[in-house]
């Protein structure tokens, strides 16, 4: 009985890690994005407060335009797209390339709840294998 519980927990964890990998894959490709400008751009997750009621009926293009309205421009100084990806399931927001000065201005805009720098995390494959085999949770 306990072993089945550990298998279910491991399967759920695997699903979560797989989802995180899929969600972060556009970020890892964009992280190596070169910028010709002397400004130092970094990727930030911008969390938006509860969207207006009409956001529920927005299509993807309208939602992306609404998110872009928070940005100083749609392109960086070097002409690269500023927005990397958007989120609207668990939380509302987007990932964008910003300088520290732009970040400071954006974080004070109405509707922005917080901004955090994107950090790439590597999954510990040995630890995951142990979890899947039940070793990390006291399994046989």
UniProtKB/TrEMBL annotation:
InterPro entries, sorted: S8pro/Inhibitor_I9, S8pro/Inhibitor_I9_sf
Residue span(s) of domain Inhibitor I9: 44-115
Highest taxon in the source lineage: Eukaryota
Protein name (Swiss-Prot/TrEMBL): Inhibitor I9 domain-containing protein
Biological source species: Triticum aestivum (Wheat)
């Amino acid at each position: 009985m306990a072993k089945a519980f550990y298998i279910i927990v491991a399967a759920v964890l695997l699903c979560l890690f797989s989802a995180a990998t899929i969600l972060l894959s556009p970020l890892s490709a964009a992280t190596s994005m070169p910028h010709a400008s002397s400004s130092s751009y970094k990727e930030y997750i911008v969390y938006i407060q509860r969207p207006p009621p009409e956001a529920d009926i927005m299509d993807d293009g309208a939602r992306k335009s609404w998110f872009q309205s928070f940005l100083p421009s749609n392109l960086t100084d070097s002409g690269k797209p500023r927005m990397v990806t958007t989120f609207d399931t668990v939380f509302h927001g987007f990932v964008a390339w910003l300088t520290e000065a732009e970040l400071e201005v954006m974080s004070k805009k109405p509707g922005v709840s917080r901004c955090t720098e994107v950090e790439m995390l590597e999954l510990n494959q040995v630890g995951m294998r142990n979890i899947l085999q039940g070793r990390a949770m006291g399994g046989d």
